[in-house]
Amino acid sequence: MSSLEYLKNNSLMKKFPSFRNDFVNGCWKWIEGKKIDDNAAGLWRVHDKLYDLTDFIPKHPGGRAWLEISKGTDITEAFECYHLSSRPRDVLENYCVGVATQERNYRYTFDDNGFYRTLKREIGQKMKSVDKSVEIKPKIIHDITLVAFLMSVVFVSQVQPNDYINANYIAPVIIAGLLLEWLVSMSHNFLHKADNWRMYTGNLSMAATRDMRTFHILSHHMYPNTYADLETTFFDPHFKWIPAEVKDLQYKIQSIAVHVNIHTLYFFNMLRMRIQGFFWGTAETFYWDDLVMFITPALIYTTGTQSSDIIEVIFKWLHIIIAASVFHVIGLINRGHHTTTTIHQGDEIFTYDFGEYQMNAVCDRSGANMNIFTILTLYGEQVLHQLFPSIDAAVLPQLKETLIATCKQFDIEMKKCSLVGSVVGQYKQMFRDELYIGKK
After folding, report:
1. What is the dihedral sign for C-alpha 113, 53, 63, 213?
2. In the chain, N or C terminus with fewer CB closer than 10 Å?
3. pLDDT for 303-335, tens place per residue?
4. Single residue among 108, 143, 164 that ends a domain in this structure
């Protein structure tokens, strides 16, 4: 067996993801491929049972979109990590229509006495006594940042066209870009929750809430660092986070050379995927909340100088998006997933327990855990968040001791690295072509 064949076969998935290597790709295509691979018979699959949740869609406490997006797929992992109590399981059984005739495509296990189910029970018990009043903090910080961003856009709108290469223009654009990036990162906390208005503020960046629930949650959170992880494969072939046969000197030089360009185009690429889906896809890719991104140019136009025209408005808008893209990718790829100590597609998997695999796929970065602001903007408490994504970011620090105690019970090591280490580590991982076989 060649190393490339081993890379594809040693995987969480039993089948190489359909459409993964298609040139025209995106969240809509990922879902289409999952419908082919998941053996869900056009319904919703959880473990080995099939459910028809059509009538439950308008009743779903988390909002309609979750179920609309995932129809026809296996939602076992999402169901397990988003529902801590037994109540959702009882409700789910009311919609069971049969048993799946084919095995699951994913090798994850959820044994009652295994690490994840045990930790889930402990976390569920601990959640009864945590201080939930702290959940107001992310809301306040988010709202202040939103106001600050809108004010910074007004400052940008006041700059005359002949000042574009002047510090009087560049500084406000950078500030607006940084505030927008913070806003996108903060909206991530609300993206994982039941539908709420704050999750839509991320759309100011040209991203889309519905796409991000596929790109980030259903894909990345469930299958991190694998071929099924859109966040990992999104940068191919420029950044190859997954160890591959060809990572020669040419690739290494090219990956560094295009680094800045890839950074500046991140949010534009999120929009590009939806445009491709509109022209070549079979599913709807644009929704009403896509209009949110036009708030920024509308504000620039209405508050700008008398000489403002559409071209000038577009230039200023795109400059803010570019600045935000750079800041966002710097934070996005340094969240502790891509280091040479974390497991990636092709590395030997010693356990398929859902929780243990997640622990092996991410590092805890103490520098990102300092306070609620760093947790929101630098994706702090990433290990706990990866395991239980619907729990508010402000509550996660109160659960750390429970996680540590359960890890000790199962003799599981929590991977750790510094913020600087995660930055250096992502470059090392980009260049790693050795598969970890026979070593944890």
Report:
1. positive
2. N
3. 987 656 898 899 999 999 999 998 887 765 567
4. 108
